[in-house]
């Protein structure tokens, strides 16, 4: 593709990026308008659309949306959270446990859903203890965003990474005989919990709480479906060729069986199904291929590599810094889509491990969203809950807490990443 072709692809991509950030509620429409523009300009052909979409990832994502929605409907997640919280009697330990629980749930459940599940528990604890709900809601938000990237099914950026690099579910735990993204993220999680303790210890230390009200579990069918789906992903991960098509198909079959188990609950689940994100992911996979085929990525990679004179450590830090900075203000899905192939091309040019740079990008992009109230969807929801409770919590106060958490979580994750994958 010539210079004019690359320029037109770049212009359309940046327009998608800008409108994606401004018109947050219409993201799927914006992505598919971009796909349509590529078709009109003949940068994309209809026959390529189905081939460019990673259907395996789409099926995995869709099936786990269905399963986790049933877990919400069956009161499984909230019941687990309450049981964990009730094991402590002090405010500071309940804050740390609830925050850690948020992280655990976010490894398999969408971040906004995690916040909505745990927020009522946080509000009840704060009301009973007559303290501010800000520390609890902030802990839930920050840990959910961080841990969402730890597994393939946790967050869209992880799925985009898996699509780019052909990673299986098991690859997020152990890859090429080394500790992978899940364990690297845990270093950030531990430092993040330490940061929360440091910030809020004076407010909560030594104070006691009463037990929260207990949610009764309606059914355990969703737990069985979840276990079977995870086991299937693990088993299919041992064969990458099998994972490439069977993982998603098997997961989808399990979720469809669950849907057929109850007509009444199935209608509720289908109404809440995240159609928007599924359409976004499909469009993103198409855009990824168009941008990659244009040669734009190679051009940007060459520029960064030349400007930093091939210094691997400086390139590593620069990509993480850029990822953190941009994700603090804009949605990380289009950013990750644009920057991961740049990291891959730079690694290829320098003959270094691609996972070093791409994992750094993913960590920076997901944790960076914690800095501002507009950096991630979970932040917007959580910030709204705090405001509805009548709390005096400014944009600047959010940034102060979010920045400290992000700084230490990124620092410790990056150090571990460097020593494992350099």
Automatic annotation (TrEMBL):
The chain crosses the membrane at residues 6-22, 29-46, 52-72, 93-123, 129-146, 181-200, 221-238, 244-261, 273-292, 312-343, 355-386, 398-421. This is TRAP transporter large permease subunit. It is a multi-pass membrane protein. Residues 17-350 form the Citrate transporter-like domain. Keywords: Cell membrane, Membrane, Transmembrane, Transmembrane helix, Transport. It comes from candidate division WOR-3 bacterium. Its main location: membrane. GO terms for cellular component: plasma membrane. It is found in: Cell membrane. InterPro entries: Arsenical_pump_ArsB, Cit_transptr-like_dom, Diverse_Ion_Transporter. Belongs to the CitM (TC 2.A.11) transporter family. It comes from the Bacteria. GO terms for molecular function: arsenite transmembrane transporter activity.
């Amino acid at each position: 593709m010539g210079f004019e072709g690359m320029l037109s692809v770049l212009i359309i991509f940046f327009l998608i990026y800008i409108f994606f950030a401004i018109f947050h509620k219409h993201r799927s429409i914006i992505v598919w308008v971009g796909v349509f523009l590529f078709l009109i300009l003949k940068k994309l052909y209809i026959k390529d659309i189905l081939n460019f979409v990673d259907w395996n990832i789409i099926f995995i994502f869709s099936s786990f949306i269905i399963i986790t929605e049933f877990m919400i409907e069956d009161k499984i997640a909230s019941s687990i959270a309450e049981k964990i919280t009730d094991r402590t009697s002090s405010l500071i330990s309940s804050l740390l446990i609830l925050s850690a629980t948020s992280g655990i749930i976010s490894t398999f459940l969408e971040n906004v859903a995690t916040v909505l599940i745990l927020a009522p528990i946080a509000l009840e604890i704060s009301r009973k203890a007559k303290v501010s709900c800000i520390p609890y809601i902030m802990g839930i938000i920050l840990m959910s965003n961080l841990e969402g990237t730890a597994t393939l099914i946790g967050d869209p950026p992880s799925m985009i990474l898996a699509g780019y690099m052909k990673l299986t579910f098991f690859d997020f735990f152990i890859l090429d005989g080394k500790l992978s993204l899940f364990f690297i993220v845990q270093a950030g999680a531990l430092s993040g919990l330490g940061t929360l303790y440091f910030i809020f210890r004076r407010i909560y230390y030594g104070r006691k709480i009463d037990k929260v009200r207990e949610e009764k579990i309606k059914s355990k069918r969703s737990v069985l479906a979840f276990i079977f789906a995870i086991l299937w992903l693990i088993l299919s991960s041992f064969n990458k060729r099998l994972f490439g098509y069977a993982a998603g198909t098997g997961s989808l079959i399990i979720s469809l069986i669950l849907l057929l188990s109850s007509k009444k609950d199935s209608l509720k689940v289908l109404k809440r199904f995240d159609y928007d994100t599924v359409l976004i992911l499909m469009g993103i996979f198409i855009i990824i291929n168009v941008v990659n085929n244009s040669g734009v990525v190679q051009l940007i990679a060459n520029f960064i590599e030349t400007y930093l004179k091939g210094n691997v450590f400086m390139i590593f830090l620069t990509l993480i810094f850029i990822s953190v900075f941009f994700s603090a203000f804009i949605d990380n899905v289009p950013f990750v889509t644009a920057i991961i192939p740049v990291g891959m091309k730079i690694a290829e040019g320098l003959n270094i491990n691609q996972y070093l740079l791409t994992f750094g990008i993913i960590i920076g992009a997901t944790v960076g969203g914690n800095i501002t109230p507009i950096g991630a969807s979970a932040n917007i929801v959580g910030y709204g809950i705090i405001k509805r409770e009548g709390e005096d919590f400014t944009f600047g106060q959010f940034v102060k807490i979010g920045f400290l958490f992000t700084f230490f979580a990124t620092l410790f994750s990056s150090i571990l990443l460097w020593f494992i994958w350099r």
